[in-house]
Design a protein that fits this description.
A: alpha/beta; five-stranded parallel sheet; 41% helix; globular; B: 548 residues; mainly alpha; Amino acid/polyamine transporter I; 2 strands
């Protein structure tokens, strides 16, 4: 049913992604799909990497670890953004096109009052992406 | 398992660069969490110290306006009179240092690694450099400064009983000589808007870009001090440097916002008869800050970049209009003549010691240098963020020479036409008007006044928005320990407080004079920071070159 599952990952907060990572891996096993791990970074040094190149290498290593753990096919796709605080949604939507994914699995927090002002990334992607989006809470 | 073409989201390979090996991890001193539903990720203690001081400052000024007003004027006098030589001397060093970078082999080092490519094209890049770097100032001083210097030069020298000059004319003035007074006035104006301010910006921007893109350190001011302080830069020394940068930026911005509000108010009064006064200024600053908030929420590419490009288009149209109706040939002749006058008077104007024109040197030049220096962390960081992939030579030439030339053109057109109106047409309304009104009075004499004045007001407001927005972005990055992906509510906090500082200083404690005294006093310690940066840039570039 799905052949390419995209999952956005924040390498600085991998601990919060447990459910979504597991869910994507299980679905990949079920449909024999490839999981594409997408990371977004600024060109400036961050807590994850000193340069976009190093960021891409770390993301690739993360994808390999996940693939080894769950036994599915995996690729990594690193994106750079000028202003990740505000550009995350459009950058992820661009990644959906670039990777040719047919399903997006995304972690999201439980909605609260601020979602009226700043909608969650998961919510925005589900509204605007042309492919199916599975938003995983918690 | 993994795909070799996986890295296609990255623009280009980075190539070699001399990464500094440090134990420090970006964000390791940060506290993250949430206040109610709002998330935050801030540097401890830089955010806390600067945030609390600013809040305390706003309340102090509101509670004891008179006492605060006295303190501000004392500060202004002490710093401008006691340290004028220091500001002037330091600014000369920055210009010479930039010229050195252009001509020496270190100019070939590329920001972001040997093979990095630029993030933005020239048009977007220049628009952002400009809107961030001068913006409101060009609108406020474009007509008023050349006219003021012209009038004071024409008026000649006057000496008080104590033997100190009481006039405000630059150098030896040009009493009764219309042509020379115009040349001297324009030379002095170009001096304040040309090479010196842009050299100050270039130094800070280069330091940030080099230590962040090439050395892998966080994008904050303290990173540039790694060659001097080593690992201690992550401790209190670094906290002090970053906090100073936040203060300088905040007060520098608030001054510009104060100018912007006064000028927009004066323009609206001239055009629509809207009353001038505190109520209107409160309304203006609040509503423009609200517009800035929308731009903040839209981010770098969706907010500042688009607004900057719109503004450059409008400013260019206004420039072209004044150029055409004001007499193209005369103005262009003036442009070259004024440029010549600038180089002719430059050594005397830049001389830091033994000056007789004390009012001009302290009241104009010292204040300007302090103002540009207080803006430099903000403009410098902003320039650094959009300049990855340029070579050092290209970077310095583009940040130093091209904006300087555009400033000369801008001043020649607006100032030249205004001076021409006085000299040849005997039109004195602009020369007699207060500073904030001079631009509109000059436009009054040209055709289509209604439209051009309206464009003038729109430009002031949009420059206000871009400054406030990019300022919030920069302060947020510094107070988040160099993180550029901190939660957006923090930027909202800074944007609101920039407006608040501008408001309380403008309204309650002596108006623009109090803003200027805060600029000068935060600019002073930061000048020392900048002087040390020249050395760290030099040593950092040498290390890059050895590697290449």
């Amino acid at each position: 049913m799905f052949s390419n599952i995209m999952i956005p990952v924040d390498l600085a907060h991998v601990d919060k992604l447990g459910h979504a990572l597991k869910c994507a891996a299980d679905l990949a096993g079920l449909y024999g799909a490839t999981v594409t791990y997408v990371g977004v970074s600024a060109a400036t040094p961050s807590s994850v990497a000193h340069s976009p190149q190093e960021f891409a290498e770390k993301l690739k290593a993360f994808a390999e670890t996940e693939a080894g753990k769950h036994g599915h096919k995996a690729t990594a796709h690193a994106m750079t953004s000028h202003d990740p605080s505000t550009d995350l949604d459009p950058t992820l939507l661009k990644a959906v096109d670039e990777t040719g994914a047919d399903l997006v699995v995304m972690a999201s927090h439980v909605p609260n009052i601020t979602d009226y002002i700043w909608p969650s990334n998961g919510g925005t992607i589900a509204t605007h992406a042309k492919v199916s989006v599975l938003v995983v809470r918690g | 398992m993994t795909d070799e073409s996986a890295n296609q989201g990255i623009p280009e390979p980075e190539g070699h660069s001399d990464i500094i090996d440090t134990e420090y991890e970006i964000g390791q001193d940060n506290i993250d969490g949430s206040v109610g539903p709002f998330g935050f990720d801030i540097h401890n203690p830089v955010f806390l110290i600067s945030g609390l001081s600013i809040v305390a400052f706003v309340f102090y000024t509101l509670a004891l306006p008179e006492q605060a007003g006295d303190a501000f004027s004392w500060l202004f006098d002490t710093v401008t009179k006691g340290f004028d030589w220091f500001f002037l001397g330091a600014a000369n060093i920055f210009v010479l240092f930039c010229l050195l970078l252009i001509v020496t082999p270190v100019g070939s080092v590329r920001l972001g690694g040997a093979d990095a490519t630029p993030d933005y094209n020239y048009i977007g890049w220049f628009a952002m450099l400009f809107a961030a770097g001068m913006g409101i100032g060009l609108m406020f001083y474009g007509v008023s400064e050349p006219l003021s210097h012209y009038a004071s030069s024409f008026g000649g020298v006057s000496v008080g009983e104590d033997g100190v000059r009481t006039d405000w004319a630059p150098l030896g003035a040009a009493e009764g000589d219309e042509v020379e007074a115009a040349r001297l006035g324009m030379a002095a104006t170009i001096f304040h808007w040309g090479l010196h301010p842009w050299a100050i910006y270039a130094v800070v921007a280069l330091a940030l870009a080099l230590f962040s893109y090439n050395k892998g350190l966080p994008l904050t001011i303290r990173s540039a001090f790694y060659p001097i302080l080593g690992e201690r830069v992550w401790g209190w020394w670094g906290h002090i440097i970053d906090t100073l940068a936040v203060f300088a930026t905040l007060f520098g911005l608030a001054t510009s916002l104060g100018f912007g509000a006064t000028q927009a108010n004066a323009g609206l009064n001239e055009l629509f008869g809207i009353p001038v006064g505190p109520t209107m200024e409160v309304l203006l600053i609040s509503s423009i800050t609200a517009i800035a908030l929308i731009s903040v929420l839209r981010g770098l590419d969706g907010g500042v970049k688009i607004l900057s490009e719109i503004n450059m288009g409008l400013a260019f149209a206004l420039l072209l209009f004044v150029l055409v109706v004001g007499g193209f040939v005369a103005i262009m002749t003036g442009f070259f003549d004024y440029l010549l006058a600038y180089f002719q008077y430059l050594p005397a104007l830049a001389n830091p010691i033994g000056r007789e024109d004390v009012n001009f040197m302290q009241g104009w030049t010292s204040f300007y240098w302090a103002w540009w220096i207080s803006w430099s962390p903000f403009v410098g960081m902003f320039i650094a963020r959009v300049s990855r992939g340029r070579s050092v030579r290209e970077f310095v030439i583009c940040v130093l020479l091209i904006p300087s030339l555009v400033c000369v053109l801008w001043m020649s057109v607006f100032g030249g036409v205004a001076i021409d109106q006085v000299v040849h047409a005997g039109y004195t309304a602009a020369v007699d008007a207060p500073l904030e009104l001079k631009l509109f009075k000059m436009l009054d004499e040209l055709p289509l006044t209604g439209i051009t004045s309206l464009i003038g007001i729109v430009l002031v407001i949009v420059f206000f928005v871009t400054s406030s927005d990019s300022g919030s972005l920069v302060i947020d990055t510094i107070t988040a320990g160099g993180k550029v992906d901190a939660p957006v509510p923090q930027r909202v906090f800074w944007c609101v407080f920039e407006g608040a500082v501008a408001l309380v200083l403008l309204l309650s404690a002596g108006g623009l004079a109090s803003l200027q005294s805060m600029v000068i006093s935060t600019g002073l310690p930061f000048t020392i920071v900048l002087l040390m940066m020249c050395w760290t840039i030099w040593s950092g570039l040498q290390a890059e070159r050895k590697l290449g």
